[in-house]
Amino acid sequence: MSRLGAWFYDWGMARSERRFAAGWRRALLADVAGEVLEIGAGTGANLAHYPAALGRLVVTEPDRHMRARLQARAAEPGAPELGIVDAHAESLPFADASFDVVVGTLVLCSVRDPVASLAELRRVLRPGGRLVYFEHVASENARIRRVQELVQPVWRCLAGNCHLARPTGDLLDAAGFLPLTRLRERMPGAPVLVAETIRGVARRG
Known about the structure:
205 residues, alpha/beta, Rossmann fold, 7 strands, 36% helix
């Protein structure tokens, strides 16, 4: 993603963050504790919503322009202490069973290989560890999903490899994550092709 693209991402998400996304993030992260890994942290939208007391917070972001904005946000007063790592979700530089919680928000749509990425998340989680997620997903409406699939090749080029028709809930189940909570909800005011989301908490099976 370009420097302009990273800026545009924050600008484009600002209204959604004010209307609903910040509240969704805050609720998802309220009980996060222990050793925490966030993958694909982007420009750091989650940083303001982590609880004050964490054992350790490590975030990954492979895009250098997104990472630059993330580093700036991490340096702001009140931001949690964290380590920032340049790494892709498909190949995490951490030992097995290193974390109590993995967080991923609006990232699994754009990873290059979701099956390999979820296998890595499961690997670095401790037994019984939790995955906290919020993702836009393939529509349940067949006609909308067909349009998502048609548009997806062009959309991926324009939106940092974002996949409109990725069945992330099914992929989580297939990867061995056991749902503790899962809510499917449309993003208010979002374009129909990216409006359907899932969010919740799953346990490493």
